[in-house]
Design goal:
Elements (H helix, E strand, L loop, with lengths): L33 E3 L2 E6 L15 E6 L8 E4 L2 H12 L6 E9 L11 E10 L11 H17 L3 E7 L9 H19 L3 E8 L7 E3 L6 E3 L7 H8 L8 H7 L5 H50 L6 H11 L2 H6 L9 H14 L5 H14 L3 H14 L4 H11 L4 H4 L1 H13 L11
Parallel strand pairs: 7-8
Antiparallel strand pairs: 1-6, 2-3, 2-6, 3-4, 5-6, 5-7, 9-10
Length: 440
């Protein structure tokens, strides 16, 4: 086994959540499709020809860390246990009852890789819905398999690895394992239609130290090392990105404030709107709408500066910021903050607002949380934030745009242009925003 890592300045990695597609269950149903590319792997098969059927063994994996994991050197993983231990760090949370797909694409030649082998460019997740005996494959799983294949084709995948994580999969010969095999067989058929190979399937009740992993047909098994001790986990935490124990922990970050506080903030919004409208109209009459928009953008940036110094937002301040964000010009401009030095402070303020604001005002704040998380490579949190935004306001245009990007599996760099647009808007208004760069 060989593990190699060297530190480089941390940037924004790619970690995308494909939250829902038209064939999948609606928001709130519990089923979601995830795409993560927080790190790329290079997979080399053994020199010998593969056996017929699934290839269970994984002779050599090279984990080529992206900027998001603060390493420019590949990590060599010698067995499946090490790969499984790295999954929570790649996803950002410990998956449970999950059907995970790791896509394998031709590796790119680089100073740290000779171009041979395959790179794992995406990790996709769906809730693992096991079919009952004599019942067909659940429709959400079939729809997920179609989406997985669509993403794999776009990624140029040659093959995939499947990882099943489920407490019901505690033995390779039990009923749950038999149901899992049925799912895998249907997925393999779907892959074959796209000319993609199923290179291996591995199951475990839980990704935790000492837990057994096995192939669903019981041909191979092994033990998972401590996920918290993996190099991937260490580099993620060192870079300021915690690994959540479950997706529920992500949802808790945006849990609404107590109803009484949200009611108070709502009353403050009613009080603030009239004064804001008068001030905006006065500024617009004096110098045009650009002047009025500049006044509001500068006011919001002032709130952020105070918040960044450690001061929280009182009820009336939450209301004032919510009213400022209701101005699309202001909201679209502050998208640029996700790409600059104030990104972390801005995201913390958006999170606080998304918790404190009533509906539908919280949609703007939640959308900004989603964009910030998306840009920095935290797809799971972006998906949670989009769920909040669209629940608050199903017709929220920015949230819908971001949701479509996630459904399509677009990488962060594909939507980073929205931040560039924010800079352009601010420049037109005569406001200087923090330049693009790593967050402070």
């Amino acid at each position: 086994m060989s593990l190699v890592m060297s530190s480089t300045p941390q940037g924004c990695g790619a970690n995308i959540l494909c939250r829902h597609c038209s064939q999948l269950p609606p928001p709130g149903s519990g089923s979601a499709l995830w795409l993560s590319t927080v790190a790329s792997f290079i997979h080399r098969f053994a020199d010998s020809a593969p056996e017929a059927g699934f290839r269970w063994a994984l002779p050599w994996i090279v984990l080529g860390m992206t900027a998001s994991t603060s390493s420019s050197q590949p990590l060599h993983l010698s067995d499946i246990g090490e790969l499984l231990a790295a999954v929570p760090a790649m996803l950002g949370f410990h998956p449970t009852r999950s059907f995970l797909v790791l896509s394998l694409s031709p590796a790119q030649r680089s100073p740290n890789n000779d171009g041979r082998g395959d790179a794992i460019g995406a990790i996709m997740r769906h809730d693992l819905l096991l079919p009952r005996a004599e019942e067909p494959i659940p429709a959400p799983m079939s729809a997920a398999f179609e989406r997985f294949c669509t993403v794999c084709v776009r990624e140029g995948a040659r093959a995939v690895l499947v990882v099943l994580v489920d407490d019901r999969l505690d033995h390779p010969r039990n009923h749950a394992s038999g149901s899992a095999v049925r799912l895998v067989e249907e997925f393999a058929d779907e892959l074959a239609l796209s000319g993609i190979e199923l290179a291996g399937v591995h199951a475990t009740p839980e990704i935790a130290r000492g837990r057994m992993w096995f192939t669903p047909e019981g041909e191979v098994n092994g033990t998972i090392p401590d996920p918290e001790s993996s190099v991937v986990a260490a580099t993620r935490v060192f870079g300021g990105s915690p690994i959540r124990r479950s997706r529920n922990e992500l949802e808790a970050l945006l849990a609404p404030s107590p109803p009484e506080r949200r009611r108070r903030v709502g009353q403050c919004i009613d009080d603030v709107i009239d004064a804001r409208d008068l001030a905006y109209e006065h500024a617009a009459r004096a110098g045009g709408t650009d002047r009025a928009d500049r006044m509001e953008l500068e006011s919001l940036l002032g709130r952020l500066a105070t918040f960044g110094d450690g001061a929280g937002l009182e009820d009336r301040e939450c209301a004032e910021v919510a009213v400022l964000l209701a101005n699309p010009t202001v909201r679209d401009s502050v998208l640029a903050l996700a790409a600059g030095a104030q990104a972390r402070a801005a995201e913390r303020m958006w999170v606080d607002l998304a918790r404190a604001l009533p509906d539908p005002e919280r949609a703007d704040a939640a959308a900004l949380v989603a964009f910030s998380a998306y840009v920095r490579g935290d797809g799971p949190f972006a998906g949670v934030a989009l769920g909040v935004a669209l629940e608050s306001n199903p017709r929220h245009r920015l949230s819908d745009l971001l949701d479509q990007a996630l459904q399509a599996g677009l990488r962060p760099e594909a939507i980073r242009g929205l931040a560039d647009t924010g800079y352009e808007i601010a420049a037109r208004l005569g406001v200087v925003l923090p330049p693009p760069g790593p967050p402070e």
